[in-house]
Design a protein that fits this description.
four-stranded antiparallel β-sheet, single chain, alpha+beta, 3 helices, 107 residues, Alpha-Beta Plaits
Length: 107
């Protein structure tokens, strides 16, 4: 079983909470941390942007990434939302067992 952390930014905490609750309710993620006061500087439509955002740190199973990505794109307000997955090389066995259990559709 492989697990990953997915980084997703959102324009505000309200939208991040909406996305997070949807992902957890649909068992596409086991836990999501929302980090406020993130400053993002990026190139968009020909100019450099400097915006306040929030960051979601999503813990999930690697096999759920495609479904998670699809759901985020469906409900996110951004045209091109940041959705970056990084595989977890090591983790607490008990935490990863829990993560598997709570993202298991057969529950």
């Amino acid at each position: 079983m492989e697990f990953m952390v997915v980084f997703i930014t959102a324009p505000n905490e309200e939208e991040a909470v909406k996305i997070s609750k949807t992902l957890v309710e649909e068992k596409l993620a086991g836990c999501i941390n929302i980090v406020k006061n993130v400053r993002s500087i990026y190139f968009w439509q020909g100019k450099i942007e400097d915006d306040a955002e929030v960051l979601m740190i999503v813990k999930t199973r690697s096999e759920l990434f495609s479904k998670l990505e699809e759901k985020v794109k469906e409900i996110h307000s951004y045209t091109v939302p940041e959705i970056i997955g990084i595989k977890i090389k090591k983790g607490s066995e008990s935490y990863l067992r829990w993560l598997h259990e709570v993202t298991n559709e057969r529950q």
